[in-house]
Amino acid sequence: MIRLQDVAATFARTGFFAPISVLPPSDADGVFASLRSFERTHAPEGLRNSNYRYNTHLVDQEVHQIVTSREVVDSVAAALDVGPAASLLLWSCDLFWKDAHSPEYVSWHQDALGLNFEPPHALTAWIALTPSTHESGGLEMIPHPFDGASVLSHAIDTSAERDTNNMLSLNQTISSEHLKDFAPPEHVNLEPGQMSMHHIHTIHSSRPNCSDLPRVGIALRFARGDVRQMGKSVNETATLLLGDGTDAIANGWLLEPTGEELFRDTGAGCISEASQQAHLQANQWIVNPQGSHYHDTDSKM
């Protein structure tokens, strides 16, 4: 069993921690199967092409229960050093899907680019529903303490000639020249049901999926309640996980309904796509997809 103090110490030293078992492998397989069933009923165009892949915890009750579980929340709270009087927020929860033998990849980058979080007490977590390995295009992390780290210069390419296999919408990339002074990257291998976490300043990437299985997981972004997103004209919504939310509200966050409120009248355990669209628009995922922050699901992985 992993000790939370070890999670906190390793995360502070390297900027990431993995693996953490948050649900049995058989349960992860079951979630993947349930999402496939959900896809057939609600997203015939495919989940990876549907708005249902964004903030999935507001759509699917099973996903909501997983990402708000004690195993997930305690690990994130330890990594972010959430004190007894502080709040912990789940800011986004998205499905990530990299098909088998896909040439798609994610270039070296930091999630903090464009977020303008002050202070930068936030991280990204990834829960594997299928194996996430070097072969399947899993995460690679550059170990580096996040305390005092800064956002490096990223090249941006939104031209018609940009590399369409780069899964980041702005093709944001840290050059090799900027990376040469850092330690070599480490591969993060996850079995179904395991989770990784990395700070928003951690430099990371992922390669093409060369395996026979899709790489599928749940990408989560968490922030402490004392975080404020600077330069935003529209407040972000988030799910309150710990604390009473007083600090979060004071810093401009709008708190989303609880799981009980979300799913009380659904019967089937999912909210309507119209309701999901409203959540997406509140977070500017649709109305401002290239605005002050970037909704790149693999920028979290």
Strand content: 15-25%
What do we call the CATH homologous superfamily? q2cbj1_9rhob like domain
Shape: globular
Q: Count the strands? A: 13
Q: Helix proportion of residues, in percent?
A: 10-25%
Unreliable residue stretches: 267-272, 282-301
Mean pLDDT: 84
Provide the number of structural domains: 1
Order of helices and strands: HEHHHEEEEEHEEEEEEHEHH
CATH fold-type name? Jelly Rolls
CATH C-level class is Mainly Beta
The radius of gyration over CA amounts to: 18 Å
Q: Could you give the order of strands across the largest sheet?
A: 1-8-5-10-2-12-13
The name of the CATH architecture is Sandwich
* Count of separate DSSP helical elements: 8
Task: Give your account of this protein's structure.
The protein is α+β, with helices and mostly antiparallel strands and 301 residues long. It has one domain (4-300): Jelly Rolls. The chain contains 8 helices and 13 strands. The strands form 3 sheets. It has a 7-stranded mixed β-sheet. A 4-stranded antiparallel β-sheet has the order 3-9-6-7, with no helix packed on it. The chain has a two-stranded antiparallel ribbon with strand order 4-11. Helix 6 links the parallel strand 12 and strand 13. Helix 1 crosses helix 4 (70-79). The longest helix is centred in the first third of the chain and has 18 residues, at 25-42.
